[in-house]
Amino acid sequence: MDPLVRFHDQHPPEAAGSLCEELLAGLTASPKCTSPKFFYDRRGSELFDAICLQPEYYPTRTEEAILRAAAADIAEVVGRDATLIELGSGASRKVRLLLEALHPACYLGVDISRDFLLESTRCLAVDHPWLEVHAAWADFTRPMAWPEGLAGERPVAFFPGSSIGNFTPEEAESFLEGLAALLPPGGGLLVGVDLIKDRAILDAAYNDAAGVTAAFNLNLLRRLRHEFEAEVELDGFRHRAFYNEADSRIEMHLVSLHDQAIRIAGERVDFEAGESLHTENSYKYSIAGFRELAGRAGFEPRAHWTDRDSLFCIHYLERAG
Questions:
Q1: pTM of the model as a whole
Q2: Which fold has domain 55-198+284-319?
Q3: Residue 253 binned pLDDT confidence (cut-offs 50, 70, 90)
Q4: Is the per-residue pLDDT at 15 higher than 60?
């Protein structure tokens, strides 16, 4: 194993089978749907990083600007020598904006894409030789525990990128309740939340002119074929994303271009022309609305930071005593 990164395999041995069962459950539901986690094979992770560079996609650059501007303030609230745990760490890019200010005792990256996780955490370890770096290959949407042997005075979870918006509000509250159970009283959560805004900004962000978000969405079909041995027509669907104002969420879909079927794990899933597979939600919140949700889940709001255009917010919450 890599001497620079302490690797923790928390993916259960039956993961492939259970993932296939989860896929089938969604594909045979009405309406058809899949979890956003199925986007993130290696290619999906690379495409998401490319999405973050598109001019229409404001969340990443806005969140990073907030982190840069507020790093000292965040460090004052969070404190030094914490155990910093990044959920859905991906390229570990945003956490770099905080490391020098926070100076955690150790860092743990948690991600579902194993190879991408190992590459990213190794780069982080090379660039920060003073930092103890851990990597946990895990699905953080399922029950998990922090690995043993983490240095630090207290755990502080870091959940950037507005990924909390991929959950329905009910699921988000349940997820936060589970996270609160993993933290001691006073343990912290630094979480990025996308704010409600003009629908034109939102629609453009998920329909970039370069077609990167479309490629990211359609890559799900390639993963079905290559990883889950599905029979699927790769050119048989188109990307669709729009803001559902009534539910305060962006919806992403793969829309069938004609009558067709996907065959996976011995099952046949029929699609009519125009029928869609709902692949992702991205819920948007007001600052007060998210604080209220977090409070119901067992967290107390301590601070928040936003940009001058009120596009995005970073909340610091503490596990209630």
A1: 0.91
A2: Rossmann fold (3.40.50)
A3: very high
A4: no
